[in-house]
Amino acid sequence: MDAALIPLSPLPFAVPILPGWALSRGSVTAPAEAAFLAGAALNSLDNLVRADPPWAGSWRQRLALACAAAAMPVAGRAEDEAALRDAWYLRQPGDDPGPAGTILAAWKRLAGRSPGVDVETLRSVTGLLGLRWSEELATLPERVEALTRAGGPAPFAAAAIAREVQALRPDAELLGWWLADQLLALRLRWAVPVPLLMGEARSAVFRRAGRGGRLRPGDDGFDTAVCLAVAQGATRALRCATDLAPRAARLQAVMPKLRAKGAGEAIALLLDDDAVPGTLTTPTLSRWGARRLFERLEALGAVRELTGRASFKLYGL
């Protein structure tokens, strides 16, 4: 984002609110009710996506971080959001972020590019997720395109691609959820996907009634569970936006008062990403200048220091 093009907004963006009647109360098992809740939540989320506030990049990247953290147990890893942030933002340019960091890279990629999948993209994302490539996966872009063109509600398309990945490669659950968010974005005609479903993949909505265990793609009730996961994920995304919007407005409001060279570039990064290292350097901003800038922005309530550490600090909305 060009700092000169950042719109100044002294008031917080009015994040769409999900009405109380659209919130789930207790266990929902009826497919019609689950679909209704998903539709209501997606309507509110769609209003936010189409408004495209200046801080939408930061919002999507924070959701990407949450999805990557939710993916860690599936990948047999234990990193939480804080560890993933460190692996990504504290590395030197060109350094390998490690296995956990590359999984985060897959969801950051989802949150930063227009929707759509070709074989080359799929092969790259499969590698980022730590999965073995196999030729049967090369059929998935065609299935994504077919499901995009088909009629029917978006959550059912997301459930369908998760089922197809499971049928082709039972070990590729992460890829199934990554593609499910692609389907949501394509069916809803969003310019950029919103990471949602991986963050709900281990939630109670996928718990089997009575027998215990988790619903898998292909099980009875899976589509209903995906609808509930969409509703929960959209609600979580709206709450995240509600948290970010006031600080983003404050950040934009104080921008004219900042005299540090390179301040505009630093603010553009804060609006576009989940976190920015306190040691940021640019052609116009020194490390010392960045430290002073972030300290002032924190004092003004426009950003937060995200780690709680005295060194190796990371800042974000």
Essential attributes:
317 residues, mainly alpha, Fic-like fold, Arc Repressor Mutant, subunit A, 2 domains, 3-stranded antiparallel β-sheet, 3 strands, 2% strand, globular, DUF1403, DUF1403 family protein
Structure description:
Pfam families: DUF1403 (PF07183). This is DUF1403 family protein. The chain is mainly alpha-helical and 317 residues long. The protein has two domains: 215 residues, Fic-like fold (Orthogonal Bundle), CATH 1.10.3290; 59 residues, Arc Repressor Mutant, subunit A (Orthogonal Bundle), CATH 1.10.10. 53% of the residues lie in helices and 2% in strands. The protein is built from eleven helices and three strands, in the order ααααααααααβαββ. Strands 1-3-2 form a three-stranded antiparallel sheet. β2 and β3 form a beta hairpin. α2 crosses α10. The longest helix is centred in the C-terminal third of the chain and has 33 residues. The protein starts with 30 loop residues before the first helix and ends with a strand. The relative contact order is 0.16. The N terminus is likely disordered.
